[in-house]
Amino acid sequence: MKHKKILLLMSLALLLTGCGAVEQKTTQAYEGKAESDFSGKKYVTVAESGDMKLELLPTTGNLRWENTKTGEYLDTTKAETDLKDTTALSDVVAYYFDGKDSKKYTSYTSMDTHSYGFENESVTYEKMDNGVRFVYSLGSDSVSYKNFPAYITPERLQDLVLQYCDEKQQKTVMKQYRKTKSGVLARKKGKDNPLSGKAAPELYNLFYEVGHYTYEELEADCTEYDKLDELPSTQTIHMVVEYTLDNGDLVVNIPTQYLTSNEDFPMRSLDVLPYFMSSNEKDGYLFVPDGSGALLYLDNDKLAEYRYTSFYYGGDVLADTEVYDASPTSMMLPVYGMKSGDMATLGIIESGAEIAELNTYMKGYFSGIDYARASLSFYIRKEQTLSSYVGSTNNFTLNKVPTDFYTGDIRLRYKFLTGDDANYSGMAKSYQKYLVDQGVLQKLEAPEKAPLFVDFLGEVDKEKYFLGVPYQSSVALTTFAQAEEILKDLSAEGAGNVLAKYEGMVNGGLNQRAVESVKVSSVLGGKKGLQSLQKTAQETGAQIFPSVQLQTACTAKHLSKKERSYTLAGSLAIRNRFDLVKREPKKDDPYKTYYIAPTYLQSYIGKFDQSYGKLGIDNLASSDFYTFFQGDYRNKANISTTTAMTEYAAGLEKLSTDYNLMLSNPAVTAYKDADIISDLPLDNSQMKVLDAWVPFTQMVLSGHKVYGSAYINRDLEALGDSYMKAIESGSALNFRLMAGDTSVLNETTQENVFFAEYDLWKDSIATCYEKYSTYYEKVKGASIVNHEIENRDNLHRIVTYDNGVKVYLNYGDEDAEIAGVTVPAHDYLMK
After folding, report:
1. How many CB atoms lie within 10 A of CB 70?
2. Beta strand pairing status for 452-457 and 733-737?
3. Which long-range contacts does 43-50 make (Cβ < 8 Å, 24+ apart)?
């Protein structure tokens, strides 16, 4: 193997501090060893930890992660198979924007570590503490017709090449060119072009070594004759990939501070270990954290829906603000997994989740590749479409990328699961333990009485008319006095632990304006009404959680331009409501929702905290905080989501210090600071490629947080199954309610909550809570340790708790025997 001394320089990047000032990062240098620490044609052990060992095959770069007790292993590539796909033979595929289009970012190209690293013999291995470091210099040394000008004048060819060649060499050069009518020499094409075998390197030697031709001269000739598309790539990508064992876990780290490329070919993304989580077995599944969890069976034959793709935490929400998403997905846990045969693997993104995209491919997606797989892509720079045009003769697209790009580590941790833990339940337990070890979760002292979540709807904007002239007014959906009566009703029915989130009670209600100065809604009852509600809550054992939006605000009033985020197109970013028929943003929306700029967020939360604190309420809920992340791309100060997350974290720390905090299905990065988690999904996104829903998120939180379901009163007919899903996932029940008549919702922007009228649900709430309390008493303080799906129709399920209690659930229309227990239709039994 050829060994090269590789100097890796970190690219200069501009990042913005919290106050908007520009900070230039310092450069670092990494100098790789001239000689590899490992060589040979046999596997060599590079790390050992407990029952696990890591072996390297130096000739291919394949790493084998093996359980020494069972002999089971995973390979980082498919180098040990008959698969010849270069992606399958690579541990990383690097994508970069094409040089000629780099300013428009309309196209990109890739280099994989197999073709451009190992085949070019441009990789070295370095021994690390319990691991190995791969040092790559990816690039193409191959010579083709593109290395020679398509057109050149005889004078230039004479001056730059021929005068330095002897007679024989001159004939060799001239064999490749013919004279055109204009007198210009044209490179021969097709059958007349013998640039194959040794011909191309020989000609290269005559042009560039014997002659004085250079890449700059080639560029000049290509420019002169409009042949820039024939310029050969000068791209070279330098990259470091580190593999270590940590308590048996395989840890993969790519320090992007050492990821460099040519200035004209900026990095776009990295596909990391694209075939590590893959299998050609029929028994098993891929796990994705879609919704609360979903499975894709390895023998899935849905060839028309063969792919699942989604960004963790929703990606950057400013990327496509005007694109309607017909199948929105949600992944709030940075994990994924695979079960294949008798073993399973859980992957955890420890660093870089906010720029990560998860892709799954079922067997048959790629012709001739009989593997199902899940892989991760990490976007160093993500292009955004500013404008596009599709015409009859030509198409046009203009893209742009942020100047603030990712320079943190991409760090992954893989856990090897065997025996009874080789399934998604084992993955959930493993991730729960990981979060406990990280200090994110801790064992919960269970509440004495079963929690009941209710979500009161408060004030709403409504268009009214006076003498035929429309005007904007406000009406109450649930006044404070009405909420008191509901709490008294619930208390009379035995609900002594009501967690009442109150939406739309401040600053404009459900179309909430900015909350730097908090004003309690007068139409709901004002401060006095709120104080009376607080008193009633204390008397009935309930808690009131005023709910606010902290990352968005309706209308621009009280928010200057510097306090709102911008898109890369230079316009103020809007969280659009969409016309569901036309699937386009509503242009006449009177309550446009703007994003709070990350650089202003700390100040915004500080002002809110100071004002809200005067109400004397210890509880706070937010329906949007930590449910998504966004940057700010104003012209002179780009802020990526990664940079923005430091601002979010500072705001979260302040709020969690000052209040008992309830967050709505937040990203896992908020779990440590959120006291209560609400609105956890009871399903997945329902994409057709997904085979089964599993309550993975709830299994992770079980016994460690108070958490509630998404509201289950969307439909009277579906209430029974929704209630059962709450039981199956161990989620406290959640009802969304309004005290008034639903007709008041006409001519408002909240027409999607017609189901919430309290009188429709009063009896159902009492019945469901009574049943739930019986269930709660049997599992109080216990954690879910196992979840099973008995058959592929997903109708029969078993949940096991660590105190020995089992819950058997039958979603079918007929009574069924589940593991020896007869369960009535659409019901459950506990043993």
Report:
1. 13
2. parallel
3. 46/127, 46/131, 46/132, 46/243, 47/130, 47/131, 47/132, 47/243, 47/244, 47/245, 48/130, 48/245, 49/130, 49/245, 49/246, 49/247, 49/248, 49/249, 50/247, 50/248
Residue 663 makes CB contacts below 8 A (sequence gap 6+) with 621, 622, 625, 626, 627, 670, 674, 676, 677, 678
Spatial distance between the Cα atoms of 632 and 641, rounded to a whole number of angstroms: 8
Please tell me what DSSP assigns to residue 25: P
Lowest mean pLDDT among 137-146, 495-504, 565-574: 137-146
Per-residue pLDDT tens over the stretch 161-170: 999 999 999 9
Provide the CATH topology of domain 452-830.
Answer: TIM Barrel (3.20.20)
Q: What is the CATH number of domain 7-140+234-437?
A: 2.70.98
pLDDT digits (tens, 9 = 90+) for 2-56: 333 233 322 323 222 233 333 433 334 356 676 788 999 999 999 999 999 999 9
Contact call for residues 455 and 733 (beta carbons, < 8 A): no
- Work out the average pLDDT over 64-89: 95
pTM for this prediction = 0.89
Q: How far apart are CA 384 and CA 104, in angstroms?
A: 10
- The confidence band for 524, taking pLDDT boundaries of 50, 70 and 90, is very high
Enumerate the domain spans of the chain.
Answer: 7-140+234-437, 145-230, 452-830
176-179-184-186 Cα dihedral, nearest 10 degrees: -30
